[in-house]
Amino acid sequence: MRAVRLVQPGQPLEEADVALPQIGPSDVLIRLAACGICHSDAHYRAGISKFNSLPMTLGHEVAGHVESAGKNVVHVAPGDRVCVHYLVSCGRCDFCSRGFEQFCPNGQMIGRHRDGGYAQFIKVPGRNAFKLPEEISFEAGAVMMCSSATALHALNKARIKSGESVAIFGFGGLGFSALQLARALGCGEVYVVEINQAKLASIAALGAVAIDANVADSAEQIREATGGKGVDVAIELIGSAITMRQAAQCLGVLGRAAFVGLTTEALSVFPYPELINQEAELIGVSDHLASEIPSLMQFACSGKLRFPPGTIHCVDLDAAKINAVLDALEISTDRIRTVIKS
Ligand SMILES: [Zn+2]
Ligand SMILES: [Zn+2]
Questions:
Q1: Do 150 and 174 contact (CB within 8 A), yes or no?
Q2: Given this model, what pLDDT does residue 294 score?
Q3: Which residue numbers in the chain have pLDDT < 50?
Q4: Could you tell me the distance, in angstroms and rounded to a whole number, from the CA of residue 173 to the centre of ligand 2?
Q5: Fewest Cβ atoms closer than 10 Å to its Cβ: which of 34, 110, 133, 341?
Q6: Distance 234 CA to ligand 1 centre (A)
Q7: Contact partners, residue 17, CB within 8 Å, separation at least 6
Q8: 337 alpha carbon to ligand 1 midpoint, in Å?
Q9: What does the alpha-carbon distance between residue 75 and residue 77 come to, in Å, rounded to a whole number?
Q10: Shortest CA distance to 180 belongs to which of 143, 215, 224?
């Protein structure tokens, strides 16, 4: 089968002809229909993240048809439309048994620790395959497995409740899902912080309050817009100490800030005024859980999570085209998402 693989970090991905994976009794073989090209794939290609072995087929946002299933797999069958939870965990360790499989010491990320979906077929454990309802396109299904799932996990970690106000920092793929999912969960007013003028216009068009970070400090703008109260929940998706600090500063009494964006910069907070005095919380968010995928599907089926025409771009399974998408991702995140259509 054809696959597009990382052979050498820092070099373009290469097209290869590889053997069709052989499945075990608990695995499924999936014929790819769509695989998302993620910003983290650009990091992998650049050599920012370490790989245990190379070459490796990238791609962790996977949707397609079940081609064949091992004898122990009962919840899906050949021909079924499925999407894939990207973390393969042991299912037996302390973290797995408590439902926090993202901390499984033996966890393997698809498209990083084991071959991913930049290929015609992929082998995954059956329990990583979730039925994809007819109402959801393969492209949307693929994208939902990463950015939407992580946005939902962030909102869950922030324990968002009906009627609560939300500030979202960053309106890329994650922010686009976070806005819709916050509403699906019944939130009140949503404030979205951006610097890109086109994105600010689309935020306003979606009925959220656009906060232009070019104009003034965004935490101050949010505080002013909430009559001094601050918000109940802040979701930081950019990964900078500056916006994390603003996410903490825009919280009201009992507010929770969830940090999704990655940074190694130090973050300063003033414990007494910013946390203690209002019992505010700063929460780290890592990946998402298999148990969150069914509710994500429900939101997509009911039209609460949508990817209107133009929000997902498609390319062929072609190394040059995929490398060009990764080049563009390294420069900007203007596009909501691109998927490989097989
Ligand atoms: Zn991703
Ligand atoms: Zn485990």
A1: yes
A2: 95
A3: none
A4: 29
A5: 133
A6: 22
A7: 1, 2, 3
A8: 10
A9: 7
A10: 143
pLDDT for residue 52 = 86
At residue 342, the pLDDT reads 83
Longest dimension (CA), the chain: 62
Predicted confidence (pLDDT) per residue in 39-52, tens digit:
999 999 999 888 88
N residues, the chain: 342
Q: How far is the CA of 239 from the centre of ligand 2 (A)?
A: 27
Cα 134 to averaged position of ligand 1 atoms, centre (Å): 23
- The region, left, alpha or beta by phi > 0 then psi within -120 to 50, assigned to residue 2 is beta
Ligand 1 ion: residues within 5 Å (CB): 38, 146
Looking up tokens 């990207």 gives: 86
Amino acid identity of 341? K
Query: For residue 36, how far is its CA from the centre of ligand 1 (angstroms)?
Result: 7
Cα separation, 15 vs 80, whole angstroms: 28
Q: 3-state DSSP call for residue 51?
A: coil
From the CA of 41, the nearest ligand is: 1
- C-alpha to C-alpha distance for 29 and 44, rounded to whole angstroms: 24
